[in-house]
Automatic annotation (TrEMBL):
Annotated protein name in UniProt: Retrovirus-related Pol polyprotein from transposon TNT 1-94-like beta-barrel domain-containing protein
InterPro entries attached to this UniProt entry: PolX-like_BBD (IPR054722)
Domain Retrovirus-related Pol polyprotein from transposon TNT 1-94-like beta-barrel per the UniProt entry, residue ranges: 19-95
Pfam family, any one: Pol_BBD
């Protein structure tokens, strides 16, 4: 069963939410302006849970999250402008030894 955690809106991206997704293998963001660094790449197809839909990444970059006064650099985030919401990969957080407490 897939599960996700929806975060509250922040001053960084006040018009959008971040969703922590246990099924995502990469962090994926849909807005170019929220990256602190971004390298544009040729279109790369991204596999999603919906096999009939196509999603493409147009680059990779770094996104910063600040939580409880700690700064976390999330690197190799995919820039997917057609994504409906921003996804933070729980697997990616675990690989970077970043934990989430309830």
């Amino acid at each position: 069963m897939a599960q996700a955690l929806v975060t509250r809106r922040s001053s960084i991206i006040p018009d959008q939410e971040l969703i922590v997704d246990c099924g995502a293998t990469h962090h994926m963001l849909n807005s170019e302006h929220i990256f602190v660094s971004l390298v544009k790449t040729p279109l790369v197809k991204v596999r999603t849970g919906y096999s009939s839909s196509s999603l493409f990444s147009k680059g990779t970059g770094t996104f910063i999250i600040i939580s409880d006064g700690k700064v976390f650099n999330l690197e190799k985030c995919l820039f997917a402008p057609r994504l409906n919401c921003n996804l933070i990969s729980l697997l990616g957080l675990n690989k970077d030894k970043i934990t989430i407490n309830r």
